[in-house]
Amino acid sequence: MKTIGLLAGIGTLPVEFIKAAHMQGYKVVCIAVIPGVSSMLQELADVYYDINVAKLNKIIKTLVKEQAMEVTMLGKVTKEWLFKGLHLPDLRALTVLNSLRNRKDDTIMLSLVDELAKDGIEVLDQTKYLKPLMPSAGVFTKKKPTEAQFRDIMFGFQAAKLIGAMDLGQTVVVKNQAVMAVEAIEGTDACIKRGGLLARGDAVVVKTAKPKQDPRFDVPAIGLTTLQSMEESGCKVLAIEANSTIFAEQEAVIKEANKKGIVILAVEQE
């Protein structure tokens, strides 16, 4: 049985990955790298560890010990951890951090990929086992976007691609073709809450892949927490990039969106 490593952050995607990998006959060694991961990970994984992201050498040596020479990174680990969440980092983590030319998402993740490769560990395409969760274009909810909302979607799509090209984030909140909020270090949910409150209701949320998205990390994803952030801040439309966004917990999300009159759709780049 082939062994695959999973470096897990917060959210449901690590859980979805383990289920998908098991269906294909793989053994999964899961390392939770921050607090607050799903409790299901410990139940589902063949082998489970809690090792803080600051202990990089221990993480890598554990993967080697478990013969997990292929690994994927799934779940939310925001950049805030690099600025205030690293408690007593080991020498290897400090070396990586000190070598960074900047702290953009891709720079950080590519440095981690390179560090794993030093011990013969390959980082897999995040979507390799999750393609069925990446829908093609279409409206998923009973309610469809109005013409005005669709104009905001197209405007937001262009804006999201522009911030993605700068490696700032993947999400924007728009109302009346004006940007209310742009995702940065705080992450998608905080961006949605801030933008929805500034818009004072009826805002449109757009999430896309970066123009040069590396499929090994930071693939855009949505789920129940995304919808909950929209409900909390009064956002009414969620548009994702078709065939490029992981849509977790689809059935539950669509059911809740229909109850709340929220529109969810996937659009293609024109």
Automatic annotation (TrEMBL):
Residues 137-264 form the LpxI C-terminal domain. Residues 4-132 form the LpxI N-terminal domain. InterPro entries: LpxI, LpxI_C, LpxI_C_sf, LpxI_N. It holds the Pfam family LpxI_N. This is LpxI family protein.
